[in-house]
Amino acid sequence: MRAKGMAALAAFCFIALVAFPMSGADAGSSDGYSSQLDADGQLVYSQVAGALEAVQADPVNTVGVSVDLRDALVLFESTEDAEAYARETVRTALVAMYYEDPMAVWLWNLPVKDVEVEVSTGPVTTKLTDSGYEKVYFAATGVSFTLSVPEDMADDPATEQNELADRMDSVRKAAAAISVGGSVSEKVKAIADRLHGIRDSADEGGQVSNAYDALVVSQSSSAGIAAAFNYVCQLNGVEVMTVRGTVCDYKDGSTGSTGYWNVVRDGDSWYGVD
């Protein structure tokens, strides 16, 4: 099975367990998880989205991203605090996109490979006009980092063929082949039925499945199935989000394993789909 890691995801994931069904905005807005980001997070998210969009036609294994944060300064007492804030801002923005865009293959490493972020900081002097008192704070002024595809999805530079493009295209074609009509509930049921044949497979330690596993290999854990469902729903005009939480054993009340599922919006309410 093609697989990527899961274990580290809990360290930076901010998505909570969701009840069934859910009403209104409690499950999130129509803008998705990115709407929860602060001003700096929005800048990072937007820059990453633009960088990944630029390489969709001719995919490459790595994409460099640089973001100027000068328009959204947050002040701290030390450079260390400013750097920690900037790195967490990047991680949160990437997680939002990881859940919103199942075809952002450059983010599929996130659960097992942390993104190394270089942070630029600078002093900011504040002054009280009446007393003349001055204090120096520190702010993150910019971040830069590199995103890379999982090794088993990467293009081989020794060949003329772009293997990464081929693998991404195979996912797109498999998802596009699941075209459904009707009401939201009818679409969701039809999509779930089409994905029902995917063989369930538990992720090994440090590994997590993705949309390729589900749609092309037809064998995946809940993570890959949820990503595939998310992508197919998007193509069929269904508002959908991926959710990560803990699957409990209701027989004895014990806490179970990490699981992934989806929520879809029908009218003013959100409903869970597992």
Description:
This protein is α+β, with helices and mostly antiparallel strands and 274 residues long. Helix content is 32%, strand content 23%. It has 7 helices and 10 strands. It has helices spanning 9-12, 39-54, 79-100, 163-176, 184-195, 211-217, 222-235, and strands at residues 22-23, 62-68, 75-76, 117-127, 134-148, 199-200, 219-220, 240-246, 258-266, 269-273. α4 (163-176) crosses α6, α5 (184-195) crosses α7 (222-235) and α6 (211-217) crosses α7 (222-235). The model is unreliable at 1-30 (pLDDT under 50).
Structure class: alpha+beta
Q: Determine the N-to-C terminus distance.
A: 22 Å
Catalogue the unreliable spans: 1-30
The protein's oligomeric status is: single chain
Strand order of the largest sheet: 1-10-9-8
Let me know the number of strands.
10
- The share of residues in extended strands comes to 15-25%
Helix content: 25-40%
Topology pattern, helix = H, strand = E: HEHEEHEEHHEHEHEEE
Query: Radius of gyration from the CA trace?
Result: 21 Å
Number of helices: 7
Main sheet attributes: strand count, strand direction, barrel closure: 4 strands, antiparallel
